[in-house]
Amino acid sequence: xxxxxxxxxxxxxxxxxxxxxxxxxxxxxxxxxxxxxxxxxxxxxxxxxxxxxxxxxxxxxxxxxxxxxxxxxxxxxxxxxxxxxxxxxxxxxxxxxxxxxxxxxxxxxxxxxxxxxxxxxxxxxxxxxxxxxxxxxxxxxxxxxxxxxxxxxxxxxxxxxxxxxxxxxxxxxxxxxxxxxxxxxxxxxxxxxxxxxxxxxxxxxxxxxxxxxxxxxxxxxxxxxxxxxxxxxxxxxxxxxxxxxxxxxxxxxxxxxxxxxxxxxxxxxxxxxxxxxxxxxxxxxxxxxxxxxxxxxxxxxxxxxxxxxxxxxxxxxxxxxxxxxxxxxxxxxxxxxxxxxxxxxxxxxx
Length: 350
Hints:
The structure is a single chain. By secondary structure, the chain is of the alpha/beta class. It folds into 2 domains: 13-254, Aspartate Aminotransferase, domain 2; 256-349, Aspartate Aminotransferase, domain 1 (Alpha-Beta Complex), CATH 3.90.1150. 38% of the residues lie in helices and 16% in strands. The chain is built from 13 helices and 10 strands. The chain has a 7-stranded mixed sheet, sandwiched between helices. A 3-stranded antiparallel sheet has the order 8-10-9. Helix 1 runs antiparallel to helix 10 (240-250), helix 3 crosses helix 9 and helix 6 runs parallel beside helix 7.
């Protein structure tokens, strides 16, 4: 009963087999393997973007930080929601890789910045003189850190504001597959057709061992990104094993199938959580992650039976009033079974 993270699950068998198959003979290193051209073509086809520049790294933090740094001067600020992944979970990596750029936090309900708040933040930036940080790119987390989604229309509204000021927009798509499956849109509709300039396309949380694609829909900064990736120590020598994962992930839209399966698993979990007396779910889950407030007694039963998921604050005690609500996060991946989900729900319900 591990619901701690979609990082905790196994690789999909076809991804694992692709790694095994790639482990034969010799391939040129550093992205010059024979698999990478196929991956590049597959991504360009998937995103309907024949000119896109495509690169692979092994972690989401590297994908986000390196992509953002490509369009960020050290004296700039990056606009992000206050509970975005780049703010809460990357230990200042975007600041580090951009040589000291800051983050300007933009608010909005459901962990989604609003166009009005973004415009307000931009107009206050660099509006005075040399003493102020200057305007940099905008980044959106999709799905958000609380399991909600920007609609395609909401993404377009954000990118339109950014474009009014000549700014680029980045999409942190660690859970891109979950979002795309939930919205029922194409990869192109959720990215460049909605005004997104660069994307971190996640695989690690959705059945891969460790691979993320960085996609620039306008290749003008491609060479600079290559230099930043190398200088930042994220150019893999045995790159073929990244490419092999991504090829298997893209083949026959496996990425989308796994995202939809994880979403369906979460929907089953949420339905069960709603039957717990006293339970509260502030933000309606739209993808594969749910934040809920559940009675301490329910958590105690689940934890004593071995269930794994996060409680907040992390050091909260399970000793105390049974009916006191404690916040938790539960995440489903593609590999969850109905039996595992129902076992957890039954424990929580008592």
